[in-house]
Design brief:
The protein is of the alpha/beta class. The chain contains eight helices and twelve strands. Helix 2 links the parallel strand 4 and strand 5. Helix 6 packs across helix 7.
Length: 245
Amino acid sequence: MRILIIRHGDPDYVNDSLTPRGDREAELLAGIIDRFGIDEVFLSPQGRAQRTASYSLSRLGMSGTTLKWLHEFVPLIRRPDRDPVKTIAWDWRPSDWTVHPEFFDKDRWFTNEIMTAGGVEEEFVKVREGLDELLSAHGYRRDGLVYRVEESSHKTLAFFCHFGVECVILGHLLNISPMQLWHGFVASPTSVTSLYTEERVPGTASFRVNFFGATPHLFGAGVEVSHRARFVECAGDPGDGFERS
C-alpha cells in the first residue's frame, strides 16, 4: 500500500480558502497528479484542502471522501512565551520545547502539562483511531508498533490535508513524536509526501517514507515554493509571523 499526504495550497486563512497563488499551485499539482496512480482520495473538511483537491479530482475524474479527523490539528495551548494567550499546540520556540524530554517520546509527547491542559491527547486519539480504522478497512490492522497484514494491497491512498495533522499521521505511522516532525520538517503548500508499506516478513507491515514534501510541479513550472509553515532563515530577516498551517 502507498499513502500520499498532500498539503493544501497557499492559504487564505481568513476565508478558509486559497490565495490566487494557492490556486495556481493546486492547478500545477493537478497537472502531474495522474502520475501517482491514485486509487482513492480522502479530504480534510476544511475549505483550503477541499479547494486544493478539487483541481486534482477534476483531472482524475474522481470524487473524494471527506474525513473529519483530517481536519487541521488545532487544540490550543498556553505556550510559555504566549501565556495567557492561547495558540496552536504544535509551534513552540526551540528553547522552550527541547528542554522537556517527554516531547521526544512517542508515547509521552502529549503528557506535558501544557499539552494536557489544552486537550491535545484527545485530538491525537481522534487522528490515530481514524487513521487505523481506515487502514484496517484496507487490510492493515495496527498491532503494537507494526501492522498485521490481513490482506495485502497495492492501492495508493491520497490524503489532502494540512501540515499539522500530516506530522501527527507520520508520527503514528513511523512511531516518532510529532513534535520532532513539526519542528524539524516543513511541508510547503501543495507538497507531496509518500510512504509505502514494507512487508519484509509475511503478515507484518511497517511504513517507510520514500520522499517528503516534494514539489516537482512547482519547480518544473519555475514557481517559487511558498514559505508558509517556515519562518525566518536568519535572525533579523523579515518574517511574515504566520503560525498556522
